[in-house]
Design brief:
Blueprint lengths: L3 E7 L13 H11 L3 E11 H6 L8 H6 L5 E10 L2 E9 L3 E8 L9 E7 L8 E7 L4 H18 L6 E6 L7 H9 L2 E2 H6 L16 E6 L1 E9 L12 E8 L1
Helix pairs in contact: 4-5
Length: about 250
């Protein structure tokens, strides 16, 4: 049975912890090492004129295009936060055709721009399009509650009940309130809960203490799930990367 390999990573705009160094080139290398079929990315810098001037090797392309180059043939980028020097948001990189995509504003308040990036992909081993949703939720719990209700309604409206679904990203759910709700309301399972009994500790990357990042699935069996941290990762983003190997249910 074909295995689908997916990854989720908050890349912190291609900057190290505390924004001291540009690390987007190292992030590109690490993502290629993961060799995932679909990559869900958060805090992707679409444009930043100030950093392009500050860092000599700042890529001329938007980060999602730079990171995908030569490996992932299709990309989608959802611009969420817009400011004087540029913008950032979520992105999905895929080895399979992205049939359609949309970016939905799910901001809970005016001071924190958040989006839901929803792609439909043609995966040869699946008999219908795969729905892939990339998220970065609010920092405050009230905002996250509002967002999860909107996300749930979006999925009910636009994703068939029998369609394969992967939803991944930075959920900021440090109190672990979401897994039971998403399981009961939408039939979603978190990959680390399925394999290890609880969501993975992913933040901060140097010494993970909080389970902020998640990969939820529907219509798949979870073959394995892994957190990527340690010497090769801790000098990059403040988040650890997550990967999972999935088999159609």
């Amino acid at each position: 049975m074909p295995v689908l390999h997916v990854a989720s990573y908050n890349i912190h705009k291609g900057l190290s912890f505390f924004n001291r160094r540009m690390v987007v080139h190292e992030v590109k290398d690490r993502l290629r090492d993961l060799n995932a079929d679909i990559v869900f990315l958060q805090e992707v810098q679409g444009l930043h004129a100030g950093r392009a001037e500050r860092f000599q090797d700042w890529p001329s392309q938007p980060q999602h295009e730079f990171l995908a180059g030569g490996v992932w043939t299709d990309t989608a980028y959802g611009k969420n936060a817009v400011y004087d020097h540029g913008h950032h948001g979520n992105a999905i990189l895929a080895r399979y055709p992205i049939l359609r995509w949309d970016n939905v504003d799910i901001s809970a308040h005016a001071f924190e721009s958040r989006g839901l990036l929803h792609c439909e992909l043609a995966v040869p081993s699946l008999d219908q399009p795969l729905h892939a949703i990339c998220l970065h939720l609010a920092l405050n719990e009230q905002g996250r509650r509002q967002q999860v209700l909107r996300i749930s309604q979006h999925i009910r409206d636009l994703v068939p009940d029998d369609a394969p679904l992967i939803m991944a990203g930075d959920f900021n759910d440090w109190r672990q309130r979401m897994p039971s709700y998403l399981a009961q309301e939408l039939g979603l399972r978190e990959v680390f809960e399925s394999t290890q009994g609880r969501p993975a500790l992913s933040f901060p990357a140097v010494l993970p203490m909080f389970a902020l990042d998640r990969i939820y699935v529907r219509g798949f069996q979870v073959a394995s799930a892994r957190v990527h941290h340690g010497s090769a990762w801790r000098r990059l983003s403040d988040h650890a990367a997550l990967t999972a190997r999935l088999m159609p249910a």
